[in-house]
Write a structure and sequence with these properties.
This protein has 4 helices and 12 strands; from the N terminus they run ααββββααββββββββ. A 7-stranded antiparallel sheet has the order 4-3-2-1-12-11-10, covered by helices on one side. A 5-stranded antiparallel sheet has the order 5-6-7-8-9, covered by helices on one side. A hairpin with a 2-residue loop joins β3 and β4.
Amino acid sequence: MKNTFLIVCLLIAATSCKNDSKPDAPTKVEEISTPQQLAQTAGINNWNDVEEIKFTFNVDKNGTTVMSRKWKWNPNTDAVQLIAREDTVNYNRKAALDSIQISTDRGFINDVYWLLPEYKLIWDQGTSITEEKSQIAPISKETLDKVTILYTGDGGYTPGDAYDLYYDKDHKVREWAYHRQNDTAIGMATTFEDFKTLKGLTFATTHKTADGSTNINFTDIEITKKK
């Protein structure tokens, strides 16, 4: 009986030693795509905390402001308010829109695209995304990596258009170029400057054309977080 007990103890000890010496299985690191990296650099992981965002979209030509639209948006309810000049338009993007609201929504989509282009890489449906390394940026002529988003579906206001986003080694967008109907010629290219971070979200608040004559910029950005 004693011998049997001793053998059992030795087997338990041997098994224990094997378990202790067995190396842990390597942790699988999930790779994220380039669009996800760009969006994360811009703070998309904090987007779900946003209750409301306000911003003013401005277009300056040769130092003179030719357009200014003030927006208030609740991403959770999709309620939108526009204040432009003497006009105020309130609507909900989830509801049926009349002609005035559709026209307003076109402006809203355009302005949000300028504010959050990195997020649109993740959010938008009906798109095709391609990547190219070590490309010459159109304005700075620096060598940057590029990701292109092409709108292939029937949804949205501008199907067929494409955007090239040029980003650095830190996955921060530095320039972009617009191609109308995916034409090989660039319709417009601007810089990404004056980055600001609010409540964990990072925005390029200034976009200039190569000659500096056009300056698309954001002012009065406010973010209200959920309580």
